[in-house]
């Protein structure tokens, strides 16, 4: 997915909190839902948006779905921001 799609996914505070939670390791959908005061359907939609933006991955194990960060996309965003700030060129001078 493109940068615009990724940044749109990051724009929502609930999705950012989900990413923060997943930096501690993979979690089941139920564990994620339990941390919020919104419906399971709402969290499911947030997880879908994050997955479509390739910010998270899911794995099904029996009747459970586990989610984890996709660090490679986050690294690409950080690299883009670093280049935008011009920091990449300072090290080379």
Describe the structure.
The mean pLDDT is 89. The chain has 6 helices and 3 strands; from the N terminus they run H-H-E-H-H-E-E-H-H. The chain has helices at residues 3-10, 13-22, 29-34, 40-52, 71-85, 87-90, and strands at 27-28, 56-61, 64-69. The chain has 93 residues and is α+β, with helices and mostly antiparallel strands. The radius of gyration is 15 Å and the shape is elongated.
Question: Short description, anyone?
Answer:
The chain has helices spanning 3-10, 13-22, 29-34, 40-52, 71-85, 87-90, and strands at 27-28, 56-61, 64-69. The protein has 93 residues and is an alpha+beta fold.
Keywords:
6 helices; single chain; three-stranded antiparallel sheet; alpha+beta; about 90 residues; elongated
Percent of residues in beta strands?
15-25%
Unreliable segments (pLDDT under 50, ≥5 consecutive)? none
The number of distinct β-strands equals 3
Strand count, sense and barrel status of the largest sheet are:
3 strands, antiparallel
What is the CA-CA span between the terminal residues? 33 Å
Question: Could you spell the SSE succession in H and E letters?
Answer: HHEHHEEHH
Radius of gyration: 15 Å
- The largest sheet has its strands arranged as 1-3-2
- pLDDT averaged residue by residue: 89
SS element count, helices: 6
Shape: elongated
């Amino acid at each position: 997915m493109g940068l615009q799609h990724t940044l749109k996914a990051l724009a929502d505070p609930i999705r950012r909190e989900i990413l923060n939670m997943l930096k501690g390791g993979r979690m089941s959908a139920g564990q994620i839902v339990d941390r919020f005061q919104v419906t399971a359907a709402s969290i499911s939609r947030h997880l879908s948006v994050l997955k479509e933006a390739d910010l998270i991955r899911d794995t099904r194990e029996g009747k459970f779905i586990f989610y984890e960060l996709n660090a490679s996309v986050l690294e690409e965003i950080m690299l883009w921001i670093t280049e935008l700030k011009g920091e990449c060129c300072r090290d080379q001078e």
